[in-house]
Amino acid sequence: MPYKNIPDQYSLIAKLLHWLIALLIIALSGIGWWMVGLSYYDPWYHDSLNWHKSLGIIVLLMVGFKVIWSFVDKAPEPQATLNAFERIASSLVHSILRLAMMIIPITGYLVSTSEDAAIEVFDWFSFPVLLQINERARDIAIDIHYYFAYATLALVVLHAAAALKHQFIDHKGTLKRML
Ligand code: HEM
What we know:
By secondary structure, this protein is mainly alpha-helical. Helices cover 65% and strands 3% of the residues. The chain has a two-stranded antiparallel sheet. Residues 25, 28-29, 32-33, 36, 52-53, 56-57, 59-60, 101, 104-105, 108-109, 111-112, 119, 142, 145-146, 149 line the site of protoporphyrin IX containing FE.
């Protein structure tokens, strides 16, 4: 397996980042949806939020590394077999997904640190308060976190459906580049 991206194959690092971040975003959406429905007296009330915040900070760090890594190792060009519509649509969806994977954890972080408490990531380390926002900005951050999280899930489904179609119906080997 290549350690750097080559024309029709992503590198090992690019693949690991892609699948781990994808898995964590799906898991975090599920945990987020579940935890906000728990009552204060539920035994999972505090732990679910701690898990959500810890996993969320791990995603944030991975996305930060992914951004740096993308300058070191450029993604392969879009496949030549894609038509103009597919090229534009996929580049648009990929750009929105990249933006969302930064905006969702950053807003979650800002909501959590608005009360001036550092985030304890699984008792492994403490992620500091870098910026403390006021109550009005916190309400806006909650809304952005909420809308982006659920809209991104819908986009992930579209993205996966397109990859499966290109692989199994059009036989363009799109998914194989990332496996
Ligand atoms: C890609 C990463 C993340 C995803 C997909 C995600 C997803 C979600 C979802 C779906 C909810 C439930 C929204 C609702 O139904 O009201 C939620 C709530 C929440 N998340 Fe995240 N989250 C992520 C990262 C983070 C991070 C990094 C933190 C903090 C360190 C965080 C803190 C919170 C908090 C505090 C809430 C409750 C907000 C409220 O008071 O309503 N999240 N998240």
